[in-house]
């Protein structure tokens, strides 16, 4: 074959490149041919990888191909491919911002996606491309709130930050109510009737939280338990910026928990706590000891902890903190020791009761061997003395004596400033200090030279007889100094204090200028002005606006129309069982409980239906084998002012509903007067839990007793049901807490079905323990009697004498609970529990062990 024939058989584009011709115009065609094959591949991983590679090619000429690929991928059946389409949107936007409008259409489409895999990525694309288009979020707001718990962690962070910005534009401030009450309480006696009516109207318009605002707070609260520090920090900043002040405190415990993380996480968390603790000290006061400094902490962590301790200081804890600070001052870390001295100074200015104590402590530090500690003490003492100089002449004299030994420029300058400012209080020492410093003027730092010039000027004006020549000598030295700052200051002072023909009108006021009363300095936290940045952002960490930072808007005075977040039933599809937003929410707390109950009920309903469909063929609910007679005290007669109440579990299935546990309540009147209108009120139930109340008891005669029935849906948990048992005149807070064995319904089942179900509930669904069985508990009848008395279980026939089987299902979800007691040799037994509800299973195991081991 000739060379010419070989070339003809090759790709003509390769031939063009080989000949050195420009083939760049053909590049899109090459990309299209290569990418199109993989983007249409049946394997979702290959389709996603092809899109990722295509979007990473930073060549503007293939933008149309990328756009087509993203549009196609956004409709892909695989959520993984759609997730990669959302990632590609950001890359394409950075390559060609002119594609913004078309990309917004794709973002709008992907925001409607119900997959948790896609949610975080598309919100990130939204924040990158069109963060101002909040109209795209309206219809998807509730969906994002409900999906939040199931989204991957970094997606949660992005969504929470976006929803924080969204909420600040759509809801009114939850902090307004406090302001109105304060304004009303400060009532002026001489106000006119019209002004009083206006204030009365303000008080009547009490704040009611929007149900969608509450939905966001409720759905983000569980994420405070997240293992990811960024998620916890995101929820913390959301509560800080959106929650009522009375509710923001729940984030403090979670933030303190993060202090056990690595030093980088600690640094960010402590910075945010430092900002929070300035405005709301009460949030972190209970965790004061968590901020004590450890010897292993790096300097940056030590300094931040010190800042927080200083912010939390008050009259109650200041003595404890000062003892702690005394330890810190002796630290080998000199930077931290210096910061501690500054913290003591701040405590002295903020808490007047300890000002003198702090000042005396700082004076003691002046004899410290470490020069840095002495220097920082001098600087802080100088600031403290400005607040009340008349009482501290002795301290100024003591500091003047230290001038010969201190070499740190800032400390020397502070001492000179103090002596010059209060030279009239130390008339004998001030001229001598000027004499000594004049000798060393040429070797001093510029900062010290400026203060020597100021000292000379002030002494010239107040004690010219002794210091006139000294001052002129210092001014002559300053006139020829190398620093132009020193030369300029010297010329200015000479013209001001030494009158001559060229002096202007200002020389008359020299004394007023130099010896004017100076305002005392404010020792403030460096975190005071950081609250205008959103917590948890890079801008807050740097205390400077970073590129891409999106500011939180102010709360609107009037909330925008909430109906924009309503979604048509047709749009909701399968997940459409959601409460409409436009329903009245006058009692926001009760509506929230109802909505959460209905959501939990619908979820558990689907779970239980699936469980029932699996178990329907093999098990049926049976009558209880044993009904316990043990009663539990609900209300003691002393606490109930003569009204006593006891309850027990009757194990009667389905009286008030399929998911409710029956409880019989016996109420007794131990007084000599009748008690009227006994009823239940103020139920405080965990989310999802429901209660069917008994009918009110109109009248209970003296020494009378009555038994009523009620039902409680405990949601397959041993949590307490708290409520108020009320009479006509009183109310009493009471709790009902069920043993785990009463959360079950016995079922009938063959041994074959039992083994089949048990085989499907192994691994993490199995809990077991070996126990020592009391000799009298080793017979079949006794074991059955003991077990069914402790838990509402059904007995399963067994073909083996040493193996005893029991079966039940949970009342709420219908999940199977299989219990096996296998007797071994030497009076031991293996207790095995198989169930999907692993928490209930482990608690039941713990309750059954003593039943069989005790006589």
Automatic annotation (TrEMBL):
Gene3D superfamilies: Leucine-rich Repeat Variant. One of its GO terms (biological process) is vesicle-mediated transport. Residues 602-612 have a biased composition (Basic and acidic residues). It is found in: Cytoplasmic vesicle, Clathrin-coated vesicle membrane; Golgi apparatus. Residues 581-719 form the AP-3 complex subunit beta C-terminal domain. GO terms for cellular component: AP-3 adaptor complex; clathrin-coated vesicle membrane; Golgi apparatus. Keywords: Cytoplasmic vesicle, Golgi apparatus, Membrane, Phosphoprotein, Protein transport, Transport. Residues 566-629 are annotated as: Disordered. It is a peripheral membrane protein. Pfam families: Adaptin_N, AP3B1_C, AP3B1_C_2. It comes from the Eukaryota. PANTHER family: ADAPTOR COMPLEX SUBUNIT BETA FAMILY MEMBER. Belongs to the adaptor complexes large subunit family. Subunit of non-clathrin- and clathrin-associated adaptor protein complex 3 (AP-3) that plays a role in protein sorting in the late-Golgi/trans-Golgi network (TGN) and/or endosomes. The AP complexes mediate both the recruitment of clathrin to membranes and the recognition of sorting signals within the cytosolic tails of transmembrane cargo molecules. AP-3 appears to be involved in the sorting of a subset of transmembrane proteins targeted to lysosomes and lysosome-related organelles. This is Adaptor related protein complex 3 subunit beta 1.
């Amino acid at each position: 074959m000739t060379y010419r024939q070989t070339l003809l058989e090759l790709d003509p584009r390769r031939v063009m490149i080989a000949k050195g011709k420009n083939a760049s115009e053909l590049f899109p065609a090459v990309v299209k041919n290569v990418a199109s094959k993989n983007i249409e591949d049946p394997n979702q991983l290959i389709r996603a990888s092809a899109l990722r590679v295509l979007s990473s090619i930073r060549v503007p000429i293939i933008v149309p191909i990328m756009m087509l690929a993203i549009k196609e991928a956004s409709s892909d059946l695989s959520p993984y491919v759609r997730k990669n389409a959302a990632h590609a949107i950001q890359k394409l936007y950075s390559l060609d911002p002119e594609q913004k409008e078309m990309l917004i259409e794709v973002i709008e489409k992907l925001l409607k996606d119900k997959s948790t895999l896609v949610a975080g990525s598309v919100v990130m694309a939204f924040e990158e491309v069109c963060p101002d288009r909040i109209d795209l979020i309206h219809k998807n707001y509730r969906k994002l709130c409900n999906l939040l718990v199931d989204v991957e962690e970094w997606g949660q962070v992005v969504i929470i930050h976006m929803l924080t910005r969204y909420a600040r534009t759509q809801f009114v401030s939850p902090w307004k109510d406090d302001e109105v009450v304060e304004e009303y309480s400060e009532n002026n006696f001489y106000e006119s009737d019209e002004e009083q009516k206006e204030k009365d109207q303000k008080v009547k318009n009490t704040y009611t939280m929007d149900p969608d605002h509450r939905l966001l707070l409720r759905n983000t609260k569980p994420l405070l338990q997240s293992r990811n520090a960024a998620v916890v920090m995101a929820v913390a900043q959301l509560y800080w910026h959106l929650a009522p002040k009375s509710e923001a405190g729940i984030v403090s415990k979670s933030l303190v928990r993060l202090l056990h993380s690595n030093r980088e996480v600690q640094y960010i968390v402590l910075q945010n706590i430092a900002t929070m603790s300035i405005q709301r000290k009460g949030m972190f006061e209970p965790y004061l000891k968590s901020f004590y400094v450890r010897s292993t902490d790096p300097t940056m962590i030590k300094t931040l902890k010190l800042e927080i301790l200083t912010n939390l200081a008050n009259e109650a804890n200041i003595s404890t903190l000062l003892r702690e600070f005394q330890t810190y001052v002796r630290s080998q870390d000199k930077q931290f020791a210096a910061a501690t001295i500054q913290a003591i100074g701040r405590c002295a200015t903020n808490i007047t009761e300890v000002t003198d104590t702090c000042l005396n402590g700082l004076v003691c530090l002046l004899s410290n061997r470490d020069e840095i500690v002495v220097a920082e003490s001098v600087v802080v003492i100088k600031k403290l003395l400005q607040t009340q100089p008349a009482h501290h002449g002795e301290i100024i004299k003591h500091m003047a004596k230290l001038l010969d030994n201190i070499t740190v420029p800032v400390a020397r300058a502070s001492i000179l400033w103090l002596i010059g400012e209060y030279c009239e209080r130390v008339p004998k020492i001030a001229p001598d200090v000027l004499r000594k410093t004049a000798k060393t003027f040429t070797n001093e730092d510029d900062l010290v030279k400026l203060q020597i010039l100021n000292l000379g000027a002030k002494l010239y004006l107040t004690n010219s007889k002794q210091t006139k020549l000294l001052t002129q000598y210092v001014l002559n030295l300053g006139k020829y100094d190398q620093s132009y700052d020193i030369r300029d200051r010297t010329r200015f002072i000479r013209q001001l204090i030494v009158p001559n023909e060229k002096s202007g009108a200002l020389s008359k006021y020299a004394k007023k200028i130099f010896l004017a009363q100076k305002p005392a300095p404010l020792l403030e936290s460096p975190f005071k002005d950081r609250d205008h940045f959103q917590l948890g952002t890079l801008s807050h960490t740097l205390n400077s606006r970073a590129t891409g930072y999106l500011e939180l808007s102010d709360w609107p005075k009037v909330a925008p129309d909430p109906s924009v977040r309503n979604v048509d039933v047709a749009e909701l599809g399968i997940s459409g069982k959601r409460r409409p937003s436009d329903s009245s929410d006058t009692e926001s707390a009760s509506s929230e409980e109802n909505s959460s109950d209905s959501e939990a009920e619908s979820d558990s309903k689907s779970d239980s239906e699936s469980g029932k469909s699996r178990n329907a063929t093999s098990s049926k609910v049976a009558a209880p084998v044993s009904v316990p007679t043990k009663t539990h005290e609900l209300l003691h007669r002393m606490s109930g002012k003569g009204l006593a109440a006891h309850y027990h579990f009757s194990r009667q299935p389905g009286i008030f509903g399929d998911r409710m546990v029956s409880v019989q309540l016996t109420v007794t009147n131990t007084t000599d007067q009748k008690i009227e209108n006994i009823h239940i009120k103020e139920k405080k139930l965990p989310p999802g839990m429901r209660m069917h109340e008994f009918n009110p008891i109109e009248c209970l005669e003296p020494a009378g007793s009555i038994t009523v029935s009620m039902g409680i849906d405990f949601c397959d948990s041993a949590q307490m049901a708290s409520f108020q048992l009320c009479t006509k005149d009183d109310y009493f807070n009471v709790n009902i807490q069920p043993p785990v064995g009463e959360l079950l319904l016995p079922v009938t089942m063959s041994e074959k079905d039992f083994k089949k179900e048990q085989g499907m509930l192994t691994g993490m669904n199995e809990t077991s323990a070996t126990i020592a069985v009391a000799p009298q508990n080793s017979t079949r009848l006794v074991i059955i009697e003991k077990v069914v008395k402790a838990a509402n279980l059904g007995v399963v026939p067994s073909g083996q004498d040493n193996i005893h089987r029991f079966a039940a299902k949970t009342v709420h979800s219908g999940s199977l609970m299989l219990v096996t007691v296998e007797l071994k040799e030497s009076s031991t037994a293996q207790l095995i529990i198989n169930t999907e509800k692993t928490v209930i299973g482990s608690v039941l195991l713990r309750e059954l062990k003593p039943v069989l081991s005790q006589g």
